[in-house]
Amino acid sequence: xxxxxxxxxxxxxxxxxxxxxxxxxxxxxxxxxxxxxxxxxxxxxxxxxxxxxxxxxxxxxxxxxxxxxxxxxxxxxxxxxxxxxxxxxxxxxxxxxxxxxxxxxxxxxxxxxxxxxxxxxxxxxx
Length: 126
Fold this sequence. Notes:
Elements: E1 3-8, H1 9-18, E2 27-32, H2 44-59, E3 65-70, H3 74-78, H4 83-86, E4 97-100, E5 106-108, H5 115-121
Parallel strand pairs: 1-3, 2-3
Antiparallel strand pairs: 2-4, 4-5
Protein name: Thioredoxin domain-containing protein 17
Organism: Spodoptera exigua
GO molecular function, one term: protein-disulfide reductase [NAD(P)H] activity
């Protein structure tokens, strides 16, 4: 049910967001560290959360767009001027971070790997 996309780096993220249609399905962004040649992120917290998030998405019965965003390598992410940290729309402090776009709901760090918190994040708003 979830449409899954992958974006690499800030420019792809910025371009994607600028073309979002507010009438389309809800969009959820998952910010994670760049994948190494072995297929795993350099970010150990991201590696822990990813299988939980993937399993959750497989069970999710909602029409959403789930966008995996690679924030770059460790050096890029650790730079205090990293655009994912400074962009007022994301204000990332840690990765992984999951953000329901155009809302205030988010999970950060180890929260991303907890199924009960994912349930709460994806609950319908009244």
